[in-house]
């Protein structure tokens, strides 16, 4: 299968533009062996991965989650307009760390797996008014959930200089974080993405600006992570997904930067190493299962093909990690 482009027309209640799902063939293959049932697409976006999974695996249904109202609206349109997904796709507007509550509300006891395609979608980046882009001028927003109380303008205009420096360094490994934080504080108030971008660029020494992509990219990423609490909630959400997954089911995660990589590695490694022995004599456990690992890593860390990396800019930094549940019950 070739990479499929999922596009929706530009209307006021849906995403405009398009989003090429990253490593879609590998994701489809990853769910080929899971038991029949519901796979949670925890980051539905434009639903490219979900649609590919539904098309390839008739025994699976998708429960899509997204905190962005526009993504949810586009899913609702897909359900109405696309016969191939109707009756097999459910969508909920929710942040993915509320997975357990959503499953309870829908009376779903166990899932066949989950997919997390982290970060922002192409439409979020491309629509200037969303304020994620350092290239298109817009308000400093960056909230994936438009009901959120903290916007990028709040972070940029109210955080202490030391807090800013810390988050820019830790969320994006930016080596000029202190200089950038100082320049931001000196230039306040800052209300637009291009103004912020110019301040960041001017704070970085000229020779360093010429390498590593757009000089404002890392700082924008760091602020976006702070606004959406992306790293704070990830471990909890992954843990909940692994816990809810049936034996033979899989949890797949696409990450795009080192902060995400560290958390996924940690959660997967601890799930894999968890051999908590159930009590001998427990009526639910057969002797042969004692000491068995609760999960095994199927893909430690896989990059997209060179072809995909050259064709899809979002794929360049992507890493796919997959874990399979090998023993029933919660991990950790
Ligand atoms: C990279 S895009 C996913 C693209 C999707 N796989 C596709 O094929 O179209 C990430 C999406 O996840 C959503 N998202 C990110 N973090 C989230 C979270 N913590 N909870 C719910 N949705 C989230 C974003 O709003 C965005 O729509």
How are the SSEs ordered, and which strands pair?
Elements: E1 6-7, E2 18-19, H1 24-30, E3 37-41, H2 48-56, E4 60-66, H3 69-81, E5 89-93, H4 99-105, E6 111-117, H5 122-126, H6 152-158, H7 161-172, H8 177-187, H9 193-203, H10 206-209, H11 217-227, H12 230-244, E7 245-255, H13 258-273, E8 295-302, H14 306-311, E9 319-325
Parallel strand pairs: 3-4, 3-6, 4-5, 6-7
Antiparallel strand pairs: 1-2, 7-9, 8-9
Helix pairs in contact: 1-2, 7-8, 7-11, 8-9, 12-13
The structure holds S-adenosylmethionine.
Structural overview:
This protein has 14 helices and nine strands. Mean pLDDT is 90; it is low at 1-14. It folds into two domains: 6-123 and 230-325, Rossmann fold (3-Layer(aba) Sandwich); 146-227, DNA polymerase, domain 1, CATH 1.10.150. It has helices spanning 24-30, 48-56, 69-81, 99-105, 122-126, 152-158, 161-172, 177-187, 193-203, 206-209, 217-227, 230-244, 258-273, 306-311; strands at 6-7, 18-19, 37-41, 60-66, 89-93, 111-117, 245-255, 295-302, 319-325. Helix 7 (161-172) crosses helix 11 (217-227). The strands form two sheets. A seven-stranded mixed sheet has the order 5-4-3-6-7-9-8, with helices on both faces. Strands 1-2 form a two-stranded antiparallel sheet. The longest helix is centred in the C-terminal third of the chain and has 16 residues, at 258-273. With 332 residues, the protein is of the alpha/beta class. It is globular, with a radius of gyration of 21 Å. Bound molecules: S-adenosylmethionine. S-adenosylmethionine (SAM) binds at residues 6, 19, 21, 43, 45-49, 65-68, 71, 95-96, 117, 119-121, 144, 233.
């Amino acid at each position: 299968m070739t990479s499929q482009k999922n596009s929706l027309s530009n209307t006021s209640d849906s995403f405009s533009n398009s989003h090429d799902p990253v490593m879609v063939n590998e994701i489809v293959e990853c769910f080929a062996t899971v038991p029949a049932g519901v796979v949670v697409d925890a980051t539905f976006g434009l639903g490219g991965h979900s649609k590919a999974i539904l098309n390839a695996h008739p025994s699976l249904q998708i429960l899509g989650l997204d905190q962005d109202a526009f993504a949810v609206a586009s899913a609702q349109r897909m359900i109405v307009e696309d016969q191939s997904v109707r009756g097999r796709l459910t969508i909920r507007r929710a942040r993915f760390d509320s997975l357990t509550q959503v499953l309870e509300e829908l009376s779903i006891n166990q899932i066949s797996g989950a997919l997390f395609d982290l970060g922002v979608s192409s439409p979020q980046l491309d629509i200037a008014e969303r304020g994620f882009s350092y290239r298109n001028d817009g308000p400093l927003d960056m909230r994936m959930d438009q009901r959120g109380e903290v916007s990028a303008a709040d972070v940029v205009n109210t955080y202490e200089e030391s807090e800013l420096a810390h988050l820019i360094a830790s969320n994006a490994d930016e080596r000029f974080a202190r200089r950038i934080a100082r320049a931001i504080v000196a230039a306040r108030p800052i209300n637009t993405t291009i103004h912020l971008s110019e301040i960041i660029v001017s704070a970085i020494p000229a020779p360093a600006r010429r390498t590593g992509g757009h000089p404002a990219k890392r700082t924008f990423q760091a602020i976006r992570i702070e606004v959406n609490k992306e790293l704070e909630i990830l471990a909890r959400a992954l843990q909940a997904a692994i816990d809810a997954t049936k034996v033979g089911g899989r949890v797949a995660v696409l990450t795009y930067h080192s902060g995400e990589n560290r958390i996924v590695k940690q959660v997967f490694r601890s799930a894999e190493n968890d051999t908590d022995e159930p009590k001998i004599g427990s009526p639910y456990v057969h002797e042969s299962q004692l000491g068995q690992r609760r999960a095994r890593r199927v893909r430690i860390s896989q990059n997209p093909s060179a072809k995909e990396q050259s064709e899809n800019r979002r794929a360049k930094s992507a890493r796919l990690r997959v874990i399979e549940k090998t023993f029933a019950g919660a991990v950790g």
